[in-house]
Amino acid sequence: MAFKHRLLLFTLLWFLVSAAVLTTLSVRVWEENELRTQQSLHRELALHMRDDNPLMVGDDYSPKALSSIFHTLMLLGPDFEIYFLDPDGNITTSGPPIENVQRTQIDTTPIKQFLAGEPFPILGQDPLMPSREKVFSAAQIDDGGKVAGYLYVVIGSQQRIALSDPQSLLQYVPVVAGALIVILLFALVVYRMVYRQIIRPGRTMVKQIEDAALSEFRITPPLNFNAAELQDMASQYRRMMAVIQQQFIQLRVQEAQRREYLVQLSHDLKTPLANILGYLETWRIQHKEGQGMIDTAYHNALRLQQHLKDQLEAARSPSAKVVLSYQEIDVAELLSDVKKRFELSLRQKHIEMIVLSDAGATIMQIAS
């Protein structure tokens, strides 16, 4: 996968992950701040209810105080739920109808944390909805120096239910959409910058290097870029191409020296070889018998002369190329030629060589 596509894919994934994380964090921070604000504003609510209306008359609750508190509850609206708890957290009296209460016992640990002044928000159990925890206000009710119970006020009951309604959440859609659009624009700007500063100059550099390679690096490409990130790379490429140019020059010099040496060597060998061929040919004309070894020497000299001729032509032509081809050779003729080459040394050692081969057998030889 090309870097451009990887960058585009990474940008898209980064946008999606960022959008999800940003949305989640925003909702959590907003909810936590809302709960902290509500609990801070109503911190003294249960305390005022307790102090303004003495609740205890002997060992029982005061009906007059209860009537006043529930009247206050009606004035506050359905967003508050008031409960009277015994020291163990059991609900003894509730503002909402008792048949609507689904949890008859409340954990008193959050209430003790609230009374101890720990940082908000502190969430407590909701008697009407056991699966939810909500902010609250609480006050301790004492009777004769002992804890007689707690006044427990759940805050934001109906408001939290309304906020969980999808229709209520629609009002936050423009805010979230605006944040996502800002993130997308930022991603597009970053991609555009990377494309203009890195990807496009990189393509230009590759194109210039390819053009220089087609001309055997005789011309050094400019490799000038505005991006500072590519300056060091371009500098190293220019240095590398300078070395390549120097090596090409050295190869041309060595090739010229090699051709000159081959031409000189061919000329030096051509004259003595011609004399050898002349002597061998004269011998063959004057002597009709015992020409086996002379014929072998004569044919080898002819072959050597042809090789020298080919080398001389290749050395004189700088554009000459070696073309390889397959040539069919008779096996019997090849073995006979080998026998003739070693015939003199075999005779001196009193060794007789017998060559047997199938008639018509051939092999393929690569020849230039």
TrEMBL record:
It catalyses: ATP + protein L-histidine = ADP + protein N-phospho-L-histidine. The chain crosses the membrane at residues 169-191. It is found in: Cell membrane. One of its GO terms (cellular component) is plasma membrane. Keywords: ATP-binding, Cell membrane, Kinase, Membrane, Nucleotide-binding, Phosphoprotein, Transferase, Transmembrane, Transmembrane helix, Two-component regulatory system. It comes from the Bacteria. InterPro entries: HisK_dim/P_dom, HisK_dim/P_sf, HssS/ArlS-like. Pfam families: HisKA. SUPFAM superfamilies: Homodimeric domain of signal transducing histidine kinase (SSF47384). Its EC number is 2.7.13.3. It is an enzyme of class 2 (transferase). This is histidine kinase.
